[in-house]
Amino acid sequence: MTDTIAAIATGGAVTAIGVIRVSGRNAISAADSIFRSKSGIKMCETIDRKLMYGELLNSDGDVIDVCLCTVSRAPNSYSGEDTAEFHCHGSPVVLTEGLRALFKVGVRQAEAGEFTKRAFLNGILDLSQAEAVIDLIEAETEAAALNAAGQLCGMLGNKIEGIYDQLLHISAHFFAVIDYPDEDIDAFELKNYIASLLEAEAALAGLLDSFGRGAILKNGVLTAIIGKPNVGKSSLLNALLGYERAIVTPVAGTTRDTIEEKIRLGSILLRLTDTAGIREADDFVEKLGVERARGAAESARLVLAVFDGSRSLDDDDRAVIEVASRAPYHIAVLNKSDLKPQISADEIQKRLGATYCVSALTGEGIGALADGVGAMFAGKGEAPAGEILTNTRQADAVRRALDSIRQAQAALGAGTTPDAVLTEIESAMSALGEITGRTVREDITARIFERFCVGK
Ligand SMILES: Nc1nc2c(ncn2[C@@H]2O[C@H](COP(=O)(O)OP(=O)(O)OP(=O)(O)O)[C@@H](O)[C@H]2O)c(=O)[nH]1
Ligand SMILES: [Mg+2]
After folding, report:
1. Does residue 128 belong to any structural domain of this protein?
2. Is the CB–ligand 1 distance for residue 63 below 6 Å?
3. 268 shares a domain with 158
4. CB 122: neighbour CB atoms within 10 A?
């Protein structure tokens, strides 16, 4: 891949500074054709990563901005190719004109993720790091960003590589045994292999365990606020958000359709859905709303079941308890704590467990509720940031690798032929190789050659 690509790296909005990025064989000469430094020094004459001050030219050669330009030569750049970057004023017009000028000298528009794809193909980033780039950009909480940054620094890749290397060591020996049947595996070595497989199994099982938390880190917790009409569901949504997002009125049945918003509680992102009050409705539109409310509760991971604490529990509330109790996680919220309490908290607590008294009106108890929700999903003693799996593809590969390692252990334990063990170890390696993006066969061959061919 030698063609030269370019893109506006800072999106289409008006910003203080906007960046145009160029990568490929002609990146630096293309930069020289649209940029004139004030010092008269060409970009092809400058050292790497030095910012040069000068003029950006449009495709007619007119000055369209006064900006900074920097170049990095292969392989010491993000993509591993020659690259140039223009730090312009963040006007979409300026940036588009700069890009058009580059197209005129033979540069083409980069595809989505193409700079990072090139970094991977050029061996600058492994696949887990390349995937971390997009996770980092899309992170919605600090915890998600920390994990993605850790992966970008190679924490996940290194962990997988460590396991891969152990397996490679075992497989190389088994290959030798198959090729040279006279060379037996001695008991000491066999014990080491069993220990290595146990270690790999534990590490992979730990990674797989982190996936539940990782999915929450990346996607947030789908949360439905449910309750009978008028208990203060929309008021609770507003109190959690900190602004008047949903309409609140004393009229029962105010919320007709679901309302979705995101909030951050500590390290957790909640995808909140406010719903219509659940009750037996005659009105056709309200009925549809109630159906949606039930649907939201069914697909939610967390249900916040809201009750009016100033009234006694009735059958509509009991129907809400029933729906909430079926959710994987549920919290009871006894609202209107500013009024005289009437409700029997015991009955609710018995069915739903965690119960919080709040006033959506005054804000009392909202902080404690938020802390409680945060603690519910914060995770305890789990993998450090950077070693949490957030990606289904990676989790699937780890699962397959783990299965194969367990099969290999069983084969070793049963004293099966070396090729049966080898087949499983190879499958595990190929699954792990999918995470880092390496090619399995070639490097196994290389390592075997390295270890066994000298003098033999
Ligand atoms: N005193 C008091 N009133 C509240 C509180 N929370 C909500 N309310 C009042 O209760 C009424 C209903 O509030 P909403 O938030 O609209 O209730 P809802 O559950 O969303 O109602 P529907 O959308 O109709 O199902 C409004 O008059 C609110 O002002 C509270 O904590 N204390
Ligand atoms: Mg409402």
Report:
1. no
2. no
3. no
4. 16
Domain count of the fold of the chain = 3
Q: Is residue 281 in contact with ligand 1, taking CB distance under 6 Å?
A: no
CB-hemisphere CA count at 13 Å for 238?
A: 17
- Which atom of ligand 1 has the smallest separation from the CA of 253? 24
Give the range of the structural domain holding residue 189, as residue numbers without chain letter: 142-215+391-452
Instruction: Tell me, yes or no, whether 241 and 299 share the same domain.
Output: yes
**Residue to substitute in 230, 245, 294 for testing ligand 1 pocket (most ligand atoms within 8 angstroms of CB):** 230
Domain for residue 384, yes or no?
A: no
Taking the CA of 229 as reference, the closest ligand is 1
One pLDDT digit (tens) per residue for the chain, 456 residues: 579 999 999 888 899 999 999 999 999 999 999 999 999 999 999 999 999 999 999 999 999 999 999 999 999 999 999 999 999 999 999 999 999 999 999 999 998 778 888 888 888 988 888 888 888 888 888 888 999 999 999 999 999 999 999 999 888 887 777 777 666 666 677 788 889 999 999 999 999 998 988 888 888 999 999 999 999 999 999 999 999 999 999 999 899 999 999 998 877 899 999 999 999 888 889 899 999 999 999 999 999 999 999 999 999 999 999 999 999 999 999 999 999 999 988 989 999 999 999 999 999 999 999 999 988 887 655 667 888 998 888 899 999 999 999 999 998 888 777 788 889 999 999 999 988 887 534 443 333 223 322 221
The reply to whether 343 and 425 lie within a common domain is no
Cα separation values, 317 from 303, 347, 356, Å = 14, 11, 16
Domain-located, residue 272: yes
Give the count of alpha carbons within 13 A of 254, CB side only: 16
Query: Rounded to 10 degrees, what is the CA torsion of 433, 435, 436, 441?
Result: 10
Secondary structure class of 323 (helix, strand, coil): helix
The reply to whether 256 and 331 lie within a common domain is: yes
Report the CATH number at residue 65: 3.30.1360.120
Do 337 and 253 fall into the same domain? Answer: yes
Residue 305 and residue 231: Cα distance in Å, rounded?
Answer: 10
Q: Is the CB of 275 under 6 A from ligand 1?
A: no
- Residue 113's H or E segment, with its range, is none
- CB-based contacts of 152, cutoff 8 Å, min separation 6: 125, 129, 132, 133, 136
Ligand 1 atom closest to 255 (CA): 23
Q: Which residue has its alpha carbon closest to ligand 1 atom 32?
A: 336
CB-based contact 347:309 (threshold 8 Å): no
Q: What is the residue with the minimal CA distance to atom 14 of ligand 1?
A: 232
- Per DSSP, the three-state class of 304 is strand
| 176 in the same domain as 275 | no
